[in-house]
Specification:
Length: 139
Protein backbone atom coordinates (compact mmCIF):
# COMPACT_ATOMS: atom_id res chain seq x y z
CA UNK A 1 0.00 0.00 0.00
CA UNK A 2 1.29 3.44 -0.93
CA UNK A 3 1.19 6.17 1.71
CA UNK A 4 1.48 9.89 1.12
CA UNK A 5 3.03 12.73 3.13
CA UNK A 6 0.92 15.82 3.95
CA UNK A 7 2.60 17.69 1.06
CA UNK A 8 1.45 15.02 -1.43
CA UNK A 9 4.80 13.28 -1.91
CA UNK A 10 5.08 9.51 -1.56
CA UNK A 11 6.17 8.34 1.88
CA UNK A 12 9.15 6.00 1.88
CA UNK A 13 8.63 2.54 3.37
CA UNK A 14 10.08 2.11 6.86
CA UNK A 15 13.23 0.25 5.78
CA UNK A 16 14.09 2.77 3.04
CA UNK A 17 13.47 5.73 5.36
CA UNK A 18 15.69 4.14 8.01
CA UNK A 19 18.46 3.50 5.46
CA UNK A 20 18.28 7.11 4.19
CA UNK A 21 18.55 8.45 7.75
CA UNK A 22 21.52 6.17 8.49
CA UNK A 23 23.27 7.40 5.33
CA UNK A 24 22.71 11.05 6.30
CA UNK A 25 24.13 10.34 9.76
CA UNK A 26 27.15 8.57 8.22
CA UNK A 27 27.87 11.60 6.04
CA UNK A 28 27.78 13.86 9.09
CA UNK A 29 29.80 11.81 11.56
CA UNK A 30 32.08 9.31 9.77
CA UNK A 31 34.82 9.26 7.14
CA UNK A 32 32.54 8.31 4.28
CA UNK A 33 31.84 9.25 0.68
CA UNK A 34 28.66 9.03 -1.38
CA UNK A 35 28.93 8.13 -5.05
CA UNK A 36 25.99 8.57 -7.40
CA UNK A 37 26.35 6.90 -10.81
CA UNK A 38 24.59 8.58 -13.72
CA UNK A 39 24.59 7.81 -17.42
CA UNK A 40 24.73 11.20 -19.11
CA UNK A 41 24.53 10.04 -22.72
CA UNK A 42 22.55 6.86 -23.44
CA UNK A 43 23.34 6.86 -27.18
CA UNK A 44 26.72 6.16 -28.69
CA UNK A 45 29.21 7.42 -27.64
CA UNK A 46 28.02 6.69 -24.12
CA UNK A 47 29.27 8.78 -21.22
CA UNK A 48 28.81 8.43 -17.47
CA UNK A 49 29.41 10.74 -14.54
CA UNK A 50 30.09 9.74 -10.96
CA UNK A 51 29.01 12.46 -8.54
CA UNK A 52 31.14 12.14 -5.42
CA UNK A 53 30.33 13.88 -2.12
CA UNK A 54 32.75 13.70 0.82
CA UNK A 55 31.43 13.59 4.36
CA UNK A 56 31.78 16.58 6.66
CA UNK A 57 34.51 14.82 8.67
CA UNK A 58 37.12 15.03 5.89
CA UNK A 59 39.52 17.94 6.22
CA UNK A 60 41.70 16.84 3.30
CA UNK A 61 40.59 15.62 -0.13
CA UNK A 62 43.98 14.70 -1.61
CA UNK A 63 43.13 11.00 -1.47
CA UNK A 64 40.53 11.58 -4.21
CA UNK A 65 43.17 12.78 -6.67
CA UNK A 66 45.74 10.18 -5.57
CA UNK A 67 43.41 7.19 -6.02
CA UNK A 68 42.04 8.57 -9.29
CA UNK A 69 45.56 9.21 -10.62
CA UNK A 70 46.63 5.65 -9.84
CA UNK A 71 43.46 4.28 -11.45
CA UNK A 72 43.75 6.48 -14.53
CA UNK A 73 47.32 5.35 -15.26
CA UNK A 74 46.15 1.76 -15.79
CA UNK A 75 42.68 2.40 -17.26
CA UNK A 76 41.92 2.12 -20.96
CA UNK A 77 38.73 4.16 -20.57
CA UNK A 78 39.14 7.94 -20.93
CA UNK A 79 38.33 9.46 -17.52
CA UNK A 80 38.50 12.93 -16.03
CA UNK A 81 38.29 14.14 -12.42
CA UNK A 82 36.58 17.51 -11.97
CA UNK A 83 36.74 19.26 -8.59
CA UNK A 84 33.53 21.21 -7.98
CA UNK A 85 34.46 22.37 -4.47
CA UNK A 86 36.32 20.99 -1.44
CA UNK A 87 33.70 18.30 -0.75
CA UNK A 88 32.23 17.56 -4.20
CA UNK A 89 33.77 16.02 -7.29
CA UNK A 90 32.61 14.67 -10.65
CA UNK A 91 34.36 11.84 -12.43
CA UNK A 92 33.57 11.63 -16.13
CA UNK A 93 33.79 8.14 -17.64
CA UNK A 94 34.08 8.10 -21.44
CA UNK A 95 33.24 5.44 -24.02
CA UNK A 96 35.26 2.25 -24.05
CA UNK A 97 34.52 -1.47 -24.07
CA UNK A 98 35.59 -1.84 -20.41
CA UNK A 99 33.82 1.35 -19.28
CA UNK A 100 31.46 -0.29 -16.77
CA UNK A 101 33.96 -2.71 -15.27
CA UNK A 102 36.56 0.03 -14.88
CA UNK A 103 33.96 2.30 -13.27
CA UNK A 104 33.20 -0.45 -10.75
CA UNK A 105 36.92 -0.95 -10.22
CA UNK A 106 37.36 2.75 -9.37
CA UNK A 107 34.44 2.67 -6.94
CA UNK A 108 35.97 -0.41 -5.30
CA UNK A 109 39.33 1.37 -4.92
CA UNK A 110 37.60 4.18 -2.99
CA UNK A 111 35.63 1.61 -0.97
CA UNK A 112 38.85 -0.24 -0.08
CA UNK A 113 40.57 3.00 0.97
CA UNK A 114 37.62 3.87 3.23
CA UNK A 115 37.39 0.32 4.58
CA UNK A 116 33.93 -0.21 3.10
CA UNK A 117 32.48 3.06 4.37
CA UNK A 118 31.00 4.17 1.05
CA UNK A 119 27.42 4.91 0.02
CA UNK A 120 26.72 3.89 -3.57
CA UNK A 121 23.65 5.23 -5.40
CA UNK A 122 23.01 3.66 -8.82
CA UNK A 123 21.23 6.74 -10.14
CA UNK A 124 20.60 6.11 -13.85
CA UNK A 125 23.32 3.44 -14.18
CA UNK A 126 22.02 0.29 -15.83
CA UNK A 127 25.09 -1.92 -15.40
CA UNK A 128 24.59 -5.25 -13.65
CA UNK A 129 27.47 -7.62 -12.96
CA UNK A 130 25.81 -10.95 -13.83
CA UNK A 131 24.05 -10.47 -17.10
CA UNK A 132 24.56 -11.45 -20.72
CA UNK A 133 26.81 -9.34 -22.91
CA UNK A 134 25.09 -6.86 -25.21
CA UNK A 135 27.25 -4.78 -27.54
CA UNK A 136 24.82 -1.82 -27.35
CA UNK A 137 25.33 -1.49 -23.60
CA UNK A 138 28.96 -0.50 -24.07
CA UNK A 139 29.06 1.62 -27.21
Amino acid sequence: MVEFNPDGSIRLPGQLAKQAEENKEKLRTQRCIKIKKNVVNFKSPKKCVLQVALSDVFSDNKFMEAIFGEFNENATTPCKLVKIDEKNFEIEIGTEFRRCTECCSLVNKYKEFLEGNLIEDKGTCTFEQNRNFCYEDYF
